[in-house]
Amino acid sequence: MRNLVWGFLCFVLFYSCKKESGCGYSDQNIVAPVSEQQAVKSYLDSNSLYSGSKDACGFYYEVVKEGDGNSPNLCSQVELSYIGKLTNGDVFDQASTAFTLGSTIEGFRKGLPIIKKGGRIKLYIPPSLAYGSKEIKDGNGKVIIPANSILIFDISLTTFY
């Protein structure tokens, strides 16, 4: 009887934890190294760009428009448009797309919840909150994001659910 009760309690505890996690994504609590944070800050300062807001994880951001309502969470299906650039100004991606927020890079996961539906934000993301030491190639094998790149995104959050 004791084993049956113990087994039932373990099942209930497991099920309730699983239910709370929802979509299966959880906060990874990644913090960029100080050297990467400094590199982003130096880039912003040397280009006379806005650098007034820094997240505890180490990325910088500028809220252009806050938006209305609630903010998305890791389980939210977000619809947005964005332009992604390197610090040399090269655009590596530009799209209007939809995805589950928890399925993307850490800089997006932490940065998008700062704004709400209809909002716009600029993110300056250090490498460890993006692709780190991994280079990203296009379909032809050309490197479009070099390893250890700072990424710059201008994002408009259309909606989420």
How is the secondary structure organized here?
Blueprint: H1 2-21, H2 34-46, E1 53-54, E2 60-65, E3 77-86, E4 91-100, H3 106-111, E5 120-125, E6 136-137, E7 143-145, E8 151-160
Antiparallel strand pairs: 1-2, 2-5, 3-4, 3-8, 5-8, 6-7
Walkthrough of the structure:
The protein has 161 residues and is α+β, with helices and mostly antiparallel strands. It has a single domain (28-160), classed as Chitinase A, domain 3 (Roll), CATH 3.10.50. The protein is 24% helix and 30% strand. A hairpin with a 5-residue loop joins strand 6 and strand 7. The model is unreliable at 1-21 (pLDDT under 50). Its EC number is 5.2.1.8. Pfam families: FKBP_C.
- Can you write the helix and strand succession as a string? HHEEEEHEEEE
Tally of helical runs:
3
Give start-end ranges of low-pLDDT stretches: 1-21
CATH architecture: Roll
Oligomer status: single chain
- The level of helicity is 10-25%
Calculate the terminal CA-CA distance, rounded to whole Å.
45 Å
CATH topology: Chitinase A, domain 3
Calculate the mean pLDDT score and round it: 88
Task: State the name of the first-level CATH class.
Answer: Alpha Beta
How many structural domains are formed by the residues? 1
Based on Cα principal axes, name the global outline. Answer: globular
Total number of strands: 8
Strand content: 25-35%
> In what order do the strands lie side by side in the largest sheet?
1-2-5-8-3-4
Cα-based radius of gyration, to the nearest Å: 19 Å
Query: Mind summarizing the main beta sheet?
Result: 6 strands, antiparallel
InterPro entries: PPIase_dom_sf (IPR046357), PPIase_FKBP_dom (IPR001179)
Family: Belongs to the FKBP-type PPIase family.
Catalytic activity: [protein]-peptidylproline (omega=180) = [protein]-peptidylproline (omega=0)
Organism: Niastella caeni
